[in-house]
Design brief:
This protein is α/β, with parallel strands linked by helices. The protein is about 25% helix and about 30% strand. The chain folds into four domains: about 100 residues, OB fold (Dihydrolipoamide Acetyltransferase, E2P); about 210 residues, FAD/NAD(P)-binding domain; about 110 residues, FAD/NAD(P)-binding domain; about 110 residues, Enolase-like, domain 1 (2-Layer Sandwich), CATH 3.30.390. The protein is built from 14 helices and 31 strands. Helix 2 runs parallel beside helix 10, helix 4 packs antiparallel against helix 5 and helix 4 runs parallel beside helix 7. It starts with a strand and ends in a 9-residue tail after the last helix. It comes from Propionigenium maris DSM 9537. It catalyses: N(6)-[(R)-dihydrolipoyl]-L-lysyl-[protein] + NAD(+) = N(6)-[(R)-lipoyl]-L-lysyl-[protein] + NADH + H(+).
Length: about 575
Amino acid sequence: MGVIKLEKLTGHSDSGKITRIYVNPGDTVKKGDKLLDIESKKGSVSTTAGFQCEIKDVLVEVGASISIGEPLFKIPAGAEKVKEKKKAGKAKTGSASSYFGNMLKPKKEKIEADIAIIGGGPGGYVAALQAGLLGKKVVLIEKNKLGGTCLNEGCIPTKTLVRSAEVFHLVREAEKMGIGVENAAVDLKGVMKRKNEIVGQLVSGIDFLLKKRNVKVVKGMGDLIDKNIVMVKEGLNETTIHAENIIIATGGKVSQLNIPGSNSKNIITSKEALELKEMPGKMIIIGGGIIGMEFAFIYASFGVQVTVVEYADSILNTIDEDVVEVILQSAKEKGIRVISNGAVTEILDGEDNESIVKVKIGEEKRYFSADKVLIAVGRDTCFEGIDHEKVGLVLNEYGNGIEVNEFMQTNIPNIYAIGDVTRKMLLAHVASHQGVVAVKHIAGEEEAMNYSVVPNVVFTMPEIATAGYSESELEGRNIKVSKFPFEANGKALALGDSMGFVKLIEDIDEKKLVGAVIVGPHASDMITEAALCIRNGLGSREIIKTIHAHPTTAEAIHEAALGLNGGALHFE
């Protein structure tokens, strides 16, 4: 299979944003046909075909940032050789035909590096930036887009949709705040366009920073050949990288549901849920974990009839029951139907282009119809390009992740692994921190990973944020728990968002905080204060001594700390 790559832009620009794509997979284009338009800081340019060929696949999308050298389209192998006849009998020097012909010649390159990083997600690209700061010669290998799943198909696009859902909810509730709004509606294309623009802006920012840190980015699939060599293939191009140290950051992939009908027409994953072009009337979400519940609140807020089917006896089953109760109450208010202890056994094609989901609840069999069925049952490790047996890498006891020490070092001293491929904690910010730890260890600095106080956030409505131990994990220890409700917080009431509470957990014997849970407005922003205290062994009295600005939602943390020391001032 051949590829058409972006070879030049207006002026001296080396990157731009795709504003329009004129072709689709399966189209046959002739010489001179427009392929796409790209806007850069120096102006706009149209890329045209230099010869007749079939477009096998479009590798980019409108709104995406693109750099010179990146692939645009897949075409049949050898298509560039089938050129239109010229009156003179051969192509003119410098013609578009020669341009694409030269571009598609095989290229082989060898690179020497201090550090080669396989994977450009939040672990890999942050490791590259850190290594660049330390003056290392770095090569970053990425087969798709910089930023990985988190930036392109996960954290950022999901939270962009969360914000759109929040705004629409506020608009519908505006009358309660004295604001009249009529005929409010969701423009899904506009929502997705904004999401793509934000993702494109952030991808461009990463690309800019990597260039500033002198990080060489190699596009393509990275294969770990041995402890010092990575081979990268992209189309006809082949790059061999010899590195003193290698960091594996290949991430994860969406887990599949192995039941009859799991590949039927209306099945989507979290990736497709971020790319819908039409709003479904009804959606069934299989899986009531973090991903499932975030999408449940997003699409329910957009007006979709959502049903969540969870196999376990509770949604969000790693979170304390009192927090889950708040989320269930909110879900009920937003019309989300939650079915626990439900085993999906089959997905059938129904009438009117719907799908029928067969669910077993105890001994009862029930059937639910939907326009879209979102499978959100977790993520698997991505070992693509990593033949651990051939290289000699040791996996963890479950065989689903690469075994590493506290410095992210594998059993092969110069090979490190970070992020989801280690299966330590499947969080973007953990992967980023692991990347920094790995690079610093390579540079001779021993800063060990500490997983005991990692903030975890769930962007439901309201948000959930945790740090340290949960109350259920501390059963049997000598602890004291204090809860302060947001309905007693002035800022939360002013926001019209007073559901939830702050919960602080203190070890009585050691007089220090060991856990915190926040469910409510701004939880994701507030949790860092509690995490800082837990990480540094501070107690609730240090929070009390710290003056908190008024009126803020953070005052709820101060009040919860007071609750651990005689009682809150603004709640009985």
